[in-house]
Design brief:
The protein contains two helices and seven strands. It is mainly beta. β1 and β2 form a beta hairpin.
Length: 150
């Protein structure tokens, strides 16, 4: 509905919080704004809330701090985030639109965005889902976690 690009709804956390993400075959990160983002735009859904999910975990890296990731794109936009692992599944516009979809949830690592620039601030979709050939992308993780055979 007016997104101007390919997108999908993902449901993240327990209870699930809907996020719309554009599909990008040129990158491998999945990321969307989180409630603590002070430099993110207004999008379709509310910012994802880490504290509202009972199944979320935040991996740590150097000095026991959250792992930080960022991505810049050719057209000039970028984002910064910290890594989170939580339940994720793909569904329709609302939970009832895809009965049983939650049966395909996996533990998935994504970026909890703390800032956005350029088109990420103005796009309707909340975030982005990278679908390049990388072990961290959704298709690879669905197979690695036994949800799909190929």
């Amino acid at each position: 509905p007016g997104y101007g690009t390919h997108y999908v709804y993902v449901y993240v956390g327990t209870p699930p919080q809907r996020q719309s993400v554009i599909i990008d075959t040129g990158s491998h990160y999945t990321a969307f704004p989180c409630s603590q983002c002070s430099q993110c735009g207004q999008h379709t859904d509310a910012y994802w809330s880490l504290t509202n999910s009972s199944t979320a975990s935040v991996p740590t890296c150097i000095n026991d701090q959250p792992c930080v990731i960022s991505q810049s794109y050719t057209e000039g936009s970028s984002w910064k985030a910290f890594k989170v692992v939580d339940k994720l599944w793909v569904g329709g516009a609302d939970v009832a639109a895809s009965p049983g979809a939650s049966n395909y949830s996996i533990d998935f690592q994504f970026g909890c965005q703390t800032s956005e620039t350029g088109l990420f601030r103005t796009q309707l979709a909340d975030g982005i889902m990278g679908m390049s050939m990388n072990d961290d992308t959704l298709p690879f993780q669905l197979r690695a976690q036994g949800v799909t055979a190929t």
